[in-house]
Request: fold
Amino acid sequence: MKIQIYTSLAEKKKQGKKSFAVLIDPDKVNTIVLDELIGLSLAAKVDYFLVGGSLVISNHLDHCVQHIKKHCDIPVILFPGSPSQISKYADALLYLSLISGRNPELLIGQHVVSAPFVRQSGLEIMPTGYIVVDGGAPTTVSYISNAVPVPADKNEIAMCTAMAGEMLGMKLIYMDAGSGAKNAISENMIESVAKNISVPLIVGGGIIEPEKAYLNCKAGADVIVVGNAIEKDASLIKEMSDAVHSVPVRLSKS
Reply:
């Protein structure tokens, strides 16, 4: 089983280097849109593509991943909303466990069902503790998961949840305010979490300005994920990527 992408993420964290990922929802793109996103991402030196969504209602996942792989060498990581969102053509899979919720299906139930297919896919599997944070508006992920998000001002809940996820063996922690969030996750919450875990921290949801991406990285995020804002204005890719990559390098103490 491949471990190249996780090794890269862990090494970047150790070196204090930040990464930028463009989130692509297969339901919202066609070949023309994909070509534009790929071109802009290559020019902006985007680190990763995340592909997936809370609802993937089309059968475009394989086509989307194959098209990206054919036209660039930016790694493709699956960000699945369900066990059916698996494509063997990707490089890696965020194997998400919703540790902020109390829905047993999304903690372990769906993993039991999907395990044989995931194993057979040949993908690099990255166990990920998924923490949904209140972004000020109902989001698809909160509705589908039937789970109450972590309140935006409860830093200690997010911190303890992330610590528990790491101690349970999660290799990544992903804090998400959700697609269409009105408010991004606060720097205070990100800092509280980042200071208390040693695994890479991914942050996404509600990030619509390059300055916010920059501040989130300074607070401790290792990877910034942006999807919705780029769907509305693809030219933001360069500004977001430049902001993330301009964060001064600070070596990890772990």
Notes: The chain has ten helices and eight strands.
